[in-house]
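Below is a filled-in request sheet from our internal design queue. Each sheet records the structural input a requester submitted and the sequence that came back. We keep these sheets so that new team members can see what a complete request looks like end to end.

REQUESTER: design group, bay 2
PRIORITY: normal
MODE: inverse folding
CHAIN LENGTH: 99
BACKBONE (tokenized):
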């Protein structure tokens, strides 16, 4: 008999980040294998940017792929003093199953 597909467990945490720390914090989170998506919001909850993070983003060159996103975050940071960042994490690090 075949294996049953494992249910992927995900959860979301919310952090507040000052504008001058936003780009650095997003770079740091993009390298975390358990992070699958980042949602950047204004303090009032309005979504400004939603960024899917590829599994294994810590691989060399992955941040180069995110350069346009980081540039946009830098521009947004000039307009808003603080942000809320929703961090969506996956138990298996981006959907890869553990066998």
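RETURNED SEQUENCE:
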């Amino acid at each position: 008999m075949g294996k049953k597909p494992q249910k992927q467990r995900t959860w979301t945490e919310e952090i507040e980040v000052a504008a001058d720390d936003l780009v650095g914090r997003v770079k740091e989170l993009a390298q975390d294998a358990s992070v699958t998506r980042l949602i950047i919001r204004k303090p009032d909850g309005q979504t400004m940017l939603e960024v899917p993070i590829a599994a294994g983003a810590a691989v060399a060159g992955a941040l180069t792929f995110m350069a346009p996103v980081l540039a946009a975050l830098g521009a947004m940071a000039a307009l808003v003093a603080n942000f809320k960042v929703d961090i969506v994490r996956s138990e298996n690090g981006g959907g890869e199953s553990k066998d």
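SHEET NOTES:
- The chain has one domain: 10-90.
- The chain is about 25% helix and 30% strand.
FILED BY: M.R.
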